[in-house]
Amino acid sequence: MYRFSNTVIGFLNLLTLLASIPIIGAGLWMARSSTTCENFLQTPLLVIGFIVLVISLAGFIGACFHVACALWLYLVIMLLLIAALLGVTVFGFGVTSKGGGVEVPGRSYSEYHLMDYSPWLKKRIENPKYWNTLRNCILGSKTCDKLASWTPLDYMQNDMSPIQSGCCKPPTACSYNMEAVMLNQDSDCYKWNNAPTVLCYECDSCKAGVLENLRRNWHKLSVLIVTMLVLLIGIYSIGCCAFRNARRAQTDYPYGENRMTKVRPRWDYHWWRWLHDRKEQLY
């Protein structure tokens, strides 16, 4: 049991070290791609890959070779990672707590309104820099092409994703007959255009559909994040035991409460002794 924690930490970090290689490779491959959506993901992948690589190296070297300073670095980074994940989890639930669709009478799909979402998300998605990137991603995914062959009956019977509902059609309440021209309609009704590259991509309903898709994905991802937090806290606890073992290995104290005299000096003993002898010669 004395070396069990070191073995577990070493094995786990060897696995994560190997896993970091394809993550970094995927980020580098995306850096070469000209597709906007793939470039949008390359930086997070590279950052995650290098962080995992550094943590895994520190943990593996520290646990397998009893290097206490490497394990200390490993535990500090792990603690920061746990704190960051906790912060991201709380913040994510805070900004995605609002939202949700409004059912359309007589239709299977729902519609989404930008005002229903968090002010922080609303501010970000209205920023032209972010929206242009997301808009190009939606165009590249050809999400609306799937609805091009739909008949009016299909719109009555079939369900739609939030992005399809918000970006591929005008709001259901819009009317385009001559009598409706003078009516005070939703501003999205006037942003709609039949051109495949325009449609309702500049509508607030499209931005709301993207936020709804983000909200749903976050709630699914939160299960994985909470599981990761529990796992990381467990690994951190084992790492603390491995760090204590490494400190014992450096001082060469036997395991247990009754500490005997050191059989072999610590690694810095000879340097300290050499400096002491030099000082004695000088004085």
What does this molecule look like?
This protein is mostly helical and 283 residues long. Helices cover 66% and strands 1% of the residues. It contains ten helices and two strands; from the N terminus they run αααββααααααα. The chain has a two-stranded antiparallel ribbon with strand order 1-2. The longest helix has 48 residues, at 204-251. It is elongated and about 105 Å long.
Structural class: mainly alpha
- Please state the CA-atom Rg, rounded to the nearest Å: 29 Å
Assembly context of the chains: single chain
Percent strand: under 5%
String of helices and strands = HHHEEHHHHHHH
Q: Major sheet: order of its strands? A: 1-2
**Cα end-to-end separation:** 50 Å
Let me know the average pLDDT: 81
Residue windows where pLDDT falls under 50 for at least 5 positions: 253-263
Assign a percent range to the helix content: 55-70%
Number of strands: 2
Helix segment count? Answer: 10
Please outline the major beta sheet. Answer: 2 strands, antiparallel
Morphology call? elongated
Give me the secondary-structure topology.
Elements (H helix, E strand, L loop, with lengths): L3 H29 L3 H30 L2 H28 L6 E2 L6 E2 L7 H8 L1 H14 L10 H6 L4 H6 L20 H4 L12 H48 L17 H14 L1
Helix pairs in contact: 1-2, 1-9, 2-3, 2-9, 3-9
